[in-house]
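FIELD: query
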Amino acid sequence: MAQVQFTGIEKNPTLWASGLTRGQDEGKPVKVSANGTVALASGEERFFGVVLSVSEDHQVAVVQTHGFVTVPYTGAAPALGYTELVADGTGGVKVPTTAGTGIPYWVVAVDTANQTVTFLLKS
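FIELD: result
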């Protein structure tokens, strides 16, 4: 297997995909699962980015790691401002069940009608 190279990457790295499916997993939060590899983040797990695209062979993913993203949320609506989030296990995010277990993100918009949240990813 070829190695993923990180030299010169500033945002949206291309990483090996573990169990991701093209056409289904775009827009979902991911975690690092092995060297240079990402997998979907499970419920209550911290995540580091959101899938932008998956290759046709389902082997490689482009992951957004910087900037603003809008994703679905479940449970209580996240608060605006500096708010902890974790993956919800269904392709979105949520406020963690236990405070202090998520990562604080700058939440700038919450759409309760469509259950989406817009926040700034950290790197």
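FIELD: remark
DSSP finds no helices and ten strands in the chain.
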